[in-house]
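batch_manifest entry 22 of 60
target: Beta-hexosaminidase
source organism: Prunus persica
requested by: lab member K.T.
priority: normal
notes from requester: please return tokens only, no post-processing; we will run our own comparison against the previous entry in this batch. if the run fails, retry once and flag.
--- input ---
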Amino acid sequence: MGTQNSKLNPISHFSEFRQAMSTLFLILFVFSHSLCVLQTQGLNSADEVNDSLTYLWPLPSEFTFGNKTLSVHPQLSLVVGGNGGNSSILRLGFDRYKAIIFKNSHGVSSFDRIRGRRLSYDVTKLKVVVHSDSEDLQLGVDESYTLFVLKKDGQSIVGEATIEANTVYGALRALETFSQLCTFDYGSKSVQVYRAPWYIRDSPRFAYRGLLLDTSRHYLPVDVIKQVIESMSYAKLNVLHWHVIDRESFPLEVPSYPKLWKGSYTKWERYTVEDAIEIVSFAKTRGINVMAEVDVPGHAESWGAGYPNLWPSTSCKEPLDVSKSSTFDVVSGILTDMRKIFPFELFHLGGDEVNTTCWSSTRHVKQWLEQHNMTTKDAYQYFVLKAQEIAISKNWTPVNWEETFNTFPTKLNPKTVVHNWLGPGVCPNAVAKGFRCIFSNQGVWYLDHLDVPWEDAYNAEPLEGIDDVSQQKLVLGGEVCMWGETADTSDVQQTIWPRAAAAAERLWSRREATSARNGNLTALPRLHYFRCLLNRRGVQAAPVTNLIARSPPIWSGSCYDQ
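--- output ---
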């Protein structure tokens, strides 16, 4: 900015005026657009709830309901059964959801105590039957459950509220659904279940329902990562893809190579081994796996801060030096240490956006290529396949970004899971060749793309272009990606939510239930409701219908209208 006084500079004054008018025009445009959106929704008041809709998110597979209202005792007790009934994960989950359900309820009021009034409740206990005592959490774990909520009247076979699940993780999903059925009534100051009796049978459509979290572009404190994981459980997402390191920073402790985290931004922006173990443990108690990613051979400049020999040269710092066996020793050391932290069977090896110019322009690497009769494309393939071999030797299934499949599909290990991101059409090609696939089309499921509206995220279909049933089964599911260039602790949650919830329902609920023609009438009011539920639970979910995601409300109004 210059030092001239704009008051004496007509050109500068006109420029500022033009900028101000442009800003005013944009505000008026956004405001008028939002008014149009509200009018098209037909929602004149937050009190106008469409009783034909079911305000559960994601929508269960099968359910019926009635027209009764049941009261829930503020001292709701847990009764367990089955081989897995004594699971600590179940008991922690019950306590967690009980605190959510009765957040506004304080038991019998002091006024009722003075009057000597004794209140009776329709639901006084929650019975949970878990058949398996296994707490192993891997891809495809049984998350199915049944949930019955009805008034105990002496005639019903099942009394009050009952959950039945094969695993504790199915029980956790049921607890989430039960918590959404429970509503605090401000008139009676009690928790009630409307439209009872409820009979719900539910299971996920896809086994893999993920969220990528990038802690390299911006460091996220452990507590923030936990908050994200907690919010994931509310939408029944079940995989945190932890993109922990990249070219910008290397914040993770690797005991075998202790200088690697010299690549962190500062000494205060790091994750110890104990931090990582705590995150994995926290996620498991919510039925969420953590898939770590070590992106090679590109996106690895930060590695050389501690070990400069990993760079092809000090002036050309990535991809990692393919010519040195010591490079693969470091990769193996990292994976050996990480295997002690991350029990999930999938491990992401990246492999995207590899610019091999450094290899052809660095003398010793170029000589190595010539000696091995390799092109830089051959060397790219060599590096990816060698990294896969290392991961497989440690009992991991490798996941790679789609560039590896696009470049050398016939050479990839058959166990490879192809991770789509560049656009549509990749999963159909991958499954046609027998590979499994994860859908993350950047045009709809990259959350850092702030111009992608909720309906585009909601309507994205992982099985698009795949008609063969056997090939459809090779699509593990999908993942929304929260890349961190423009997201840190200050805005990460409102960038993730509520658009991640749109994808979450697509991945959990039946395809026919989420494919209604007019989503503004069938899905949008429910997404508004879920966004407000997230807000009530302390999640900073942004308004649903803003033109630019994560932007604040443009005017006063109800959470259910924005």
